[in-house]
Structure formats: C-alpha cells, structure tokens
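Working notes for the structural subgroup meeting. M.R. asked for a predicted model of this chain before we commit to crystallization trials. I am recording the input and output together here so anyone reviewing the notebook later can reproduce the run.

Input as submitted:
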Amino acid sequence: MDNLLGKITLYDFVAMIIPGLLVTLSYVSIYAKEFYHFYKDIGNSFVSGILILVVSYCVGWIVSEIGNIIFSNKNKSTKDVNTNIQPDLLEKYKEALETYLENTVNMNDIEKYGDMANALIQSDSKYSRIHNYNSSKSFSKNLGSACLFIVFAMIIHIIICLVYLCNKIKIPYYLFVKISACIILIIFCVFGYKVMKKRFQSFSSKVNIYICTYFIDYVKHMEIENSNEENKCINNVAVEINHSNKEERK
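Returned structure, recorded in token form:
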C-alpha cells in the first residue's frame, strides 16, 4: 500500500500538477492585476500556494480528460493496437488470455481485455516498470494538451494588445515586446504539442507491448503455482492413503 501511494505521489500527482499549473498561470497572466489583488486580500503566502496547487491539480484533471479525447482516438482502434505488436507476440498474448479466461478469445476482441490484463500485472511489483511507462504516457498527453491551452491564452493576449493598439497612434515598446513574446511562445507550444503527441504514441506502443509480454509471463507463473498446489494436494492425499493403509494392516 505504501509503495502504491509512493508511485501515485511521484508520477500521477506530478503529471496532473505541472500541466495544470502551466495552464493556470497562462490564464492568470491575462488578468494579472485582478489576481494580484486577490493574492493581497488573502494575505498569506502559504494559503495562496496551497490554493494554487489545488486549483492546478483540478485543472490538470480537466486537461487530462480533454487530452484523452485529443490524443487517444487513433490508439483505441483494434487495427492500431495490433500494428504495434508483433504477430507472434500477439498470438501468445491471445493464448494467455484464453488460458486465464478458460474460454476462446477472438483476435479482433483482444483489446477489450487490455484493462483487465493491465490491472492484473500491476498487482505484482515484479512488473512495476509498466507503471512508469503508463505515467510517462499520461504526462506526455497532459503536457501536450496544456500546450494547446497555452496557445489559446497567448492568442487572447495578442487580441487584447491589438484592441488596445487600435486606440493608439504610437505603438508602445512594451506591447511590441509582449506580442512578440506571445508569438514565440505560441510557436514553441505548437511544436511542443507535436513532440508530446509523438512521445505519447511511442509510450502507448511500449505499454501495449509490455502488457502483452508481462501478462504472458503472469499466466505462466499462475499455471506453475496452480500446478504446484495440485501436486501438494496429490502428495497430501497419497500420504493420508498410505497412513490409513498402515493403520488397517495393524
């Protein structure tokens, strides 16, 4: 239990906080004066910090759910899942599923059992590496989604500056710098989104492969343990029979 809480704190919590914080700060910057007065009214830096973390965590969850829609459409199809895995490994995975479920599994339906297989192997600390890949996959998705929200925030900044400039004959230098910074950040975030999407797809492929590999190993160990238990039962029965035969002879 302590190990599980440690993983959640180290990976999942950070995967929500960092993207949520980036999105929160990007939109706070639009109304910087209002939020500064709000911070002054609170009058406590510790409380303000906790509040920002809580808001960032909540925003991070919203960003994550939106990211599921943006990133996961292609990765949920059977065709894409199958192309990420070698045919021989996919066949062994199918056989492992049939052994565990004690039923025939159609090759086109194996993705339906992905969550079950993932949950089973994560219950064993021996396969903890897949949790790291899942967390990296989640972080890539959330950070990529945050880049899109930041792009929208910077566009709002530029629009506000342009509206202000419409009423000015001379362009203030600080507004020129602000617009330039916003444009640079937009370009950076667009490239960041593309990079994070590519990393998300890469981690998705690795997670699919690890799920298959670890689940095959999990089922093999389960069969060995069951076989050992059966042998113990048989040996115990044999000992009892021998003992009863000796008693009858007496």
